[in-house]
Write a structure and sequence with these properties.
Order of helices and strands: EEEHEEEEEE
CATH class: Mainly Beta
Number of domains: 1
Distance between the termini: 30 Å
Largest sheet: 9 strands, mixed
Strand order of the largest sheet: 2-6-3-5-4-7-1-8-9
Number of helices: 1
Radius of gyration: 13 Å
Strand content: over 45%
Structural class: mainly beta
Helix content: under 10%
Shape: globular
Number of strands: 9
CATH topology: Barwin-like endoglucanases
């Protein structure tokens, strides 16, 4: 059996709404966006900052549904600032084909469709 690390879900060009250096880690994301992208609480995600090129890994915490919240917490807050555009990506290790869910958002992090 050959396992591949394939794209599972992505939230493309979300806008950072908050940072919280004192929170003990993670990325808080509007739970509605998480659901649409097929992402779950505690899942490992890659965060790619479009504005400054920073890349990091963290885990997800669901935020209030429909709030548009994208809050970078803990040490990662030093690598993003409010207003930055980020890409949130999760992969899955599998030997099965995967149809990734790529979520597009508007400037207020509201669902705008699938890519």
């Amino acid at each position: 059996m050959r396992l591949l690390n394939l794209l599972k879900g992505k939230i493309h060009r979300a806008t950072v709404t908050e940072t919280n250096l004192e929170y003990p880690g993670s990325l808080t994301v509007d739970s509605a966006l998480m659901t649409k992208a097929g992402l779950v609480a505690g899942e490992l995600v890659h965060v790619w900052n479009v504005d400054n090129g920073e890349r990091l890994e963290t885990y997800l915490i669901p935020g209030e549904e429909g709030s548009g919240v994208i809050c970078v917490n803990g040490a990662a807050a030093r690598r993003c600032k409010v207003g930055d555009k980020i890409i949130i990506v999760a992969f899955v290790l599998t030997d099965e084909p995967v149809e990734p869910r790529v979520v597009l958002v508007d400037e207020r992090n509201r669902f705008a469709g699938y890519a």
